[in-house]
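TASK: fixed-backbone design
INPUT:
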């Protein structure tokens, strides 16, 4: 998912967007790992819509 640095510097926002993207990605990864911990013993897959 990592975007080459050359592409980022050319795009709108530049470094600000890159930092924001990193922060958001970190939050998503933390949320996913937390979700996986909750579901680990239940199943290997993320929670389905049926269960929730």
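OUTPUT:
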């Amino acid at each position: 998912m990592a975007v080459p640095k050359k592409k980022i510097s050319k795009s709108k926002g530049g470094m600000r967007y890159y930092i924001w993207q990193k922060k958001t990605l970190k939050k998503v990864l933390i949320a996913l790992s937390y979700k996986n911990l909750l579901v680990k013993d239940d199943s290997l897959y993320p929670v389905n819509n049926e269960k929730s």
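COMMENT: The mean pLDDT is 70.
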